[in-house]
Amino acid sequence: MKTLLRIFAVMRKEFLQLSRDRLTFGMIVGIPLIQLLMFGYAINTDVRYLSAAYVDEADTHLSRQFVSELTATQVIDLKHRAASLQELDSLMDAGQISIGIFIPEDFDRRVIGNGRQIAQLLVDGTDPIILGVAQQLTAAPVAFDNQQRTSQQNRIVVRNYYNPERRSAVNIVPGLVGVILTMTMVLFTAVAIVRERERGNLEFLINTPVKTPELMLGKIFPYIVIGLLQLVIILSLGRYFFEVPIRGDYLHILWASLLFIATNLSLGLLLSTLATTQFQAMQMTFFILLPSILLSGFMFPFDGMPPLAQAIAEVLPLTHFNRLIRGIILRGADILSMWDELIALAVFMVVALVLSIARFRKRLD
Amino acid sequence: MADIDYAIQATGLSKQFGSLVAVNNVDLNVPAGKIYGFLGPNGSGKSTTIRMLCGLLTPTSGSATVLGLDTRKEAEALKQKIGYMTQKFSLFEDLTVRENLEFVSTIYTLSGRTRKARVAELLTEFDLADRSRQYAGTLSGGQKQRLALAAATLHRPSILFLDEPTSAVDPQNRRDFWETLFELADQGATILVSTHYMDEAARCHNLAILDQGVKVADGSPRQLGKEITSQVIEVIAQDPNTARNCLSDESAITSITQLGVRLRVLMPKQQRDGVQLVQKRLGEAGIEAEVEAVFPDLEDVFVAVTELRRREDEGKQDSQGEAA
After folding, report:
1. Do the beta carbons of residue A123 and residue A99 sit within 8 Å?
2. Measured between alpha carbons, how far is B54 from B208 in angstroms, rounded to an integer?
3. In chain B, which segments carry CATH 3.30.70.100?
């Protein structure tokens, strides 16, 4: 009973302080909005309209038809017709184009004589995404008559599951739930205890009968509510603005998110017991945030990473949450079918919480 | 001895921060229900000692019992029984006066009804009722201090630790504050207060003088004056500056403090005929002055005991220097 009362006291205090801290409140709503708009609109891995130029040494009916086929893919935006290969090279060097198309003089003969390369694609490979997109162009059909075209078709067919329109938002929005929660939840609690130490409140607090776990839980609870608020913001924007399909059970989303929020808050508390100033706490947050964004599978597919990076990713809570939330939202998976990810998150949470309670001393030395 | 009830007892209390010895082998016996003062300059170890007695710092060596509880092992049990007012304002500046007190009352788990009544009572008692909805951060120094004291006494602790409570407060507020302290002591509370003001130290029932972490003297203010190893001679001269210059050459004199036209001259008690010695010196230099032996006040005591220690230290360093 007394324990509950003391947890309540800390909670109420945190809520009151939070409601008066406009900057933090702005961050709670602002970060999800800005990130969603940035990742949802600006960042697009499904690249279109790359600047391109071509050299058509053949200049036949067929070669012109080939060029217009390429343009029709919308992958390239033909800006120049160059006179020679040298000119194409210099346009590429100057950074004016990222794709160059070279059609040789004997283009028609090459098309008829099956098996020979018919044209060359010069690609600015400094950006691997452009290189990947350029591959799409090689599938463009070229032939004198339609019958021959069909025979040229690929023998393996891709069937796009879950995201038939190939929209990046579908992949990014569920991933953003985890990124935003990591960013804000870890930061808020990382700063929570350090701030009180800096302001001198801690010396008063630790001289009261409040127990360490009571203090920690009282500090965590208000942020769980805030985390859920952010979840609602991200999901409703994702659902109604970016039209991301939510195929799974809302209740499963809630459970997975609750667990992940609690994990991040515990991690933040742990940082809070390690740092001595708010600035240090922020720096430490950065060390968790950066690998989380890059390695968790949010930006790059997990399977494509080297084993060492995968090993690091496995000890980041976000990696496990990304699998959970993408599974539930995009594939409509049952939360229990990914029980191993749930256990991983729970272990993170318990370890972080126990460590921070053990590390926090109700003493000044 | 046995019939005296001590609220705080410490033996050989020491605290070291790296190579710095903040508190050095301090023994304390603080009688219950009295106001006990720690007098000393900044950095003399007052705060560190108070923090050790609250159980906030672990002593490097030595031990202390507060209300019969060991500060090392039973610090948690102690929390419910002591009140602590930190040197720097440590309540929440972004909460209102009332919210701060409500928080404290809940954290000390007062029962629902008493909680409300106690907060209301304190608001009136400490003259904060019309400020109850103001943010603590916007209060004046005196108001902040009253709020901090109200919070420290909210759960009616039997011991109050006050660390330089009046450092940011004007003289009138200081007087009122001390009135409150006497009332609390009358109600049975033991109060341990640190200060660097002589007039405040003089108000304490008992006090300890701390200098560079060492307790150099303790007792009641009167007793300290009596037991001082120096005699105090007051010189009133038209030109105190020349008088001072003239006397500073005299080797028997350990210290001269100027207070307006008066000089307070300290020399060891063993020195006989101190007054005549001073008169003779001044006469030789042709300076007219009234010379009179007086009863030492606290400032004299403070100067005498700290001066004594410095000399001992210098002596030690000299001998160390020679040895090296």
Report:
1. yes
2. 18
3. 227-323
Paired sense of beta strands B289-294 and B230-237, if any = antiparallel
User: Helix, strand or coil for residue B170?
Assistant: coil
Domain residue limits, chain A:
2-43+167-359, 50-151
Architecture of domain A50-151: 3-Layer(aba) Sandwich (3.40)
The pLDDT of residue B146:
93
pLDDT of A45 reads 64
Q: Maximum Cα–Cα distance for chain A, whole Å? A: 91
Radius of gyration of chain B (CA): 23
CB–CB of A157/A94 below 8 Å?
A: no
List the beta bridge partners of residue B37: B193, B207
CATH code assigned to B6-224? 3.40.50.300
A-B Cβ pairs (cutoff 8 Å, strict): 75
The answer to whether the CB of B181 falls within 8 A of the CB of B193 is yes
SS3 for A313?
Answer: helix
Residues A86-132 have pLDDT tens digits of: 999 899 888 889 899 999 988 888 887 766 788 888 888 888 778 87
Q: Given B54, B89, B109, which is nearest A207 (Cβ)? A: B54
Tens digit of each residue's pLDDT (9 = 90 or more) over A275-316? 989 999 999 999 999 999 999 988 888 888 899 999 999 999
Taking CA–CA distances from A204, the nearest residue in chain B reads B90
Confidence (pTM) = 0.82
Strands (E), chain A: 50-56, 76-81, 99-103, 120-123
- What is the dihedral angle through the alpha carbons of A297, A300, A303, A309, rounded to the nearest 10 degrees? -80
Distance (Å) from the alpha carbon of B10 to chain A's nearest alpha carbon: 19
Question: Strand pairing of B262-268 and B255-259?
Answer: antiparallel
DSSP state of A331: H
Return the structure tokens found at A256: 């997975």
Residue A151 has pLDDT above 60, yes or no: no
* Secondary structure E strands in chain B: 6-17, 20-31, 35-39, 61-66, 69-70, 82-85, 159-163, 190-195, 206-211, 214-219, 230-237, 255-259, 262-268, 289-294
Q: Which amino acid is at A106?
A: D
Question: pLDDT for B186-230, tens place per residue?
Answer: 999 999 999 989 999 999 999 999 999 999 999 999 999 888 888
Give percent above pLDDT 90 in chain B.
62
| Residue ranges of chain B assigned to CATH 3.40.50.300 | 6-224
| Prediction ipTM score | 0.83
Question: What DSSP letter does each residue of B82-137 carry, written as one string?
Answer: EEEE-SS--S-TTSBHHHHHHHHHHHTT--HHHHHHHHHHHHHHTT-GGGTTSBGG
Mean pLDDT of chain B: 90
CATH number belonging to domain B227-323: 3.30.70.100
Other C-beta atoms lying within 10 Å of the C-beta of residue A265:
30
Tokens of A33: 């909005």
Contact A162, A327 (CB under 8 A): no
Say which residue the tokens 């801690």 belong to: A202
**Would you list which residues of chain B are within 8 Å, Cβ to Cβ, of chain A?**
51, 54-58, 75-76, 79-80, 82, 84, 86, 88-95, 99, 103-104, 106-109, 151
| Beta-carbon contacts of residue A151 (< 8 Å; ≥ 6 apart) | none
Contact list, B58 vs chain A (CB under 8 Å): 363, 365
Kindly compute the dihedral angle of the four CA atoms of residues A251, A253, A257, A259, in this order, to the nearest 10 degrees. Answer: 60
- Chain B residues whose CB is inside 8 A of the A20 CB are 94
Using the CB atoms, write b or e for A43-74: b if 16+ within 10 Å.
eeeebeebbbbbbbebeeebbeebbeebeeee
